[in-house]
Design goal:
The chain is mainly α and 116 residues long. It is 69% helix and 5% strand.
Length: 116
C-alpha cells in the first residue's frame, strides 16, 4: 500500500542523521564507513540508520568488488513528490477561491472613490 510505504519513508526521514545521510548520498554513493565518518557514533549505529533507510526504500546497498556502496533510490522521491504535490494543488485551489471571494467582497480603492 502506498500510504504504508510513505509512512516508512517519512518516518525514516524524521531523524536528522538519516536526512543528512540522504543529503550526502544525493551527491555520491558512499560506504558505511564513509557515511559514519562525520558522526560521533559507531559504525554499527550508522548501519542501523542505513537499514531503516533501506527498509523504507530510500537506499540500497550494492557490491563493487570489495567495496559495498550505499546508493540513493531516486524513485522514492517521485512517490513523495506526487503525494506532496497533490496536497499542494488542493491548498493552492483553496487560496485561489479565498482570493476570489475576498476580491468580490472587499471594495477596492478605485471603487470607493467612484462611489463618493
Amino acid at each position: 500500500m502506498v500510504e504504508d510505504r510513505l509512512s516508512k519513508v517519512f518516518a525514516a526521514l524524521a531523524d536528522p542523521t538519516r536526512r543528512d545521510m540522504v543529503a550526502r548520498l544525493a551527491a555520491d554513493d558512499a560506504t558505511v564507513n564513509e557515511l559514519a565518518e562525520p558522526y560521533d557514533v559507531s559504525v554499527q549505529a550508522v548501519s542501523k540508520h542505513i537499514k531503516v533507510l533501506e527498509d523504507a526504500g530510500l537506499v540500497r546497498r550494492s557490491r563493487q568488488a570489495q567495496r559495498r556502496p550505499v546508493h540513493l533510490e531516486a524513485e522514492v522521491f517521485d512517490l513523495m513528490t506526487a503525494w506532496i504535490e497533490r496536497y499542494r494543488r488542493q491548498i493552492e485551489e483553496r487560496y485561489r477561491r479565498l482570493d476570489d471571494l475576498l476580491a468580490a467582497e472587499v471594495p477596492t480603492e478605485t471603487n470607493e472613490g467612484a462611489a463618493s
